[in-house]
Amino acid sequence: MTSKRLCFEPGHKPKCLVIVDDTAEWDRAVYYASRWAIRAGGGVVMLRIIEPEQQSQEWLGVADIMRAEAQEAAEAALDRAAGRANGIAAITPERVIREGAPMEQLLAVIDEDPDIAMLVLAANPGAEGPGPLVSLLTHALGAFPVPVTIISGALSDQSVDSLS
Fold this sequence. Notes:
There is one protein chain. The protein has about 160 residues and is of the alpha/beta class. The protein has a single domain, classed as Rossmann fold. It has five helices and five strands. The chain has a five-stranded parallel beta sheet with strand order 3-2-1-4-5, sandwiched between helices. Helix 1 crosses helix 2. The mean pLDDT is about 85. It holds the Pfam family Usp. This is Universal stress protein.
């Protein structure tokens, strides 16, 4: 169950949620969300989801090392994305790292922050398809708790500027 959106109520400000993943097009989503934040007087929340590895009892020590490495990689990815957002819009985005199934974690973050007004994703422009998260979301869009904006990964900064 999703909580009521409060993003335009007094004392709140709208936020744009962006997924920072390992795809080449994450930058387009960050760029659009940062530009949107300037115009809307809002903020940006950057989410990095770490998918847990299957682990057996005898490999728990290795799993702990892998989890620490994944956490470190997530922090580095969010550092790059936050630097990009700051360079675009002089903003300091909120950073969230979650571990678990992507759709479950995405919905949980939206549910926990009533100021999230939209989700911005970027689609891969290549022949291999739009990307795993965009593909996954297409099945849930009719019941999704916030509007979803999908930006083409082929758009230039200037094109995004004219759209945001």
